[in-house]
Every structure is written in structure tokens, then in C-alpha cells.
Amino acid sequence: MHMNVLATDLKGKTVMSDEGLLLGRLRNVLMNPKTGDLTQLLVEPGDDVDPRLFKRDPRGYLVFDISALRSVRDVILITAS
Fold first, then answer.
1. Which end of the chain has fewer CB within 10 Å, C or N?
2. How far, in Å, CA of 40 to CA of 25, rounded?
3. Is residue 1 part of a domain?
């Protein structure tokens, strides 16, 4: 069964790696304006995360390709490696 999720419901959700590391909170989802495809997740890093270990944008948000997304439930689960 496929379920639609609104972007407004995702913003601020906790993001965790599939290894159980709390990465932070989702701040935005980027999309390709030509195709409408979602491309990246921007995550505000948590206090215990060393942001230098991840790709970052100019604001310091962690950047994950949409292909890293594993599930969206109570938390957003991604593959962080």
C-alpha cells in the first residue's frame, strides 16, 4: 500500500541513520525544478553529530541524496554512509 506524505508533515522530523545514529532534524527537501523529482534532504545536525563527517551545504545543513531515504514513520530513516 502506497501512502502520500506531505512535505509540511516532514519538516522538523527527527532523522536517524539505519545504524541508529541520531543525525538531526529535517529542514528541507530539494527538488529538480524541471522534472519535479525530489533530489536531496537537508538535515540540521544534532548536537552529538560531527558535521565534518558529512556533505554539507553553505548553511551547515547535512545533505543526503534522496536515494538514501529508507522510510518515513515516526522518524525519517536514511542510509548515512
1. N
2. 14
3. no
